[in-house]
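Q: What would this chain look like folded?
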Amino acid sequence: GRAVEGDARPGRYVYSSPSVRYAGRGIFTGATEFTFQGRLMVGQTVLQCRQRPGSFVARGETLGLRQAWGVSVVCPDLPQQNQIERVTQERGSLVPEALLVRVFEPGHVPDDFESPLDEGRFTHLKWA
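A: My prediction, written as structure tokens:
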């Protein structure tokens, strides 16, 4: 974890999101290239967790999607965009329940993969 912007409390934090589209951004999950049946592929993993109600602070996105790219709806499946990030210091408040995997071909990077904070980290995935 890292310090929460505007939060004076010291310590480490755990970040989560009710949106797999948001949690699956490359800055959070990274990407791993691998070969499957002779084809180069890219994979990501995200842990799906249960989180104890009341153990976190919900807030809007902090990747700069709205400011830098003008994205008004980060996740259409989430009715309250201002609650897309969750922050807690209570590590025991999250319990993993599934491992989610997304696979795509280089050159076919999903639209919801990058963010303004990536600063070209994933340009190698864009070649076709």
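The radius of gyration is 16 Å.
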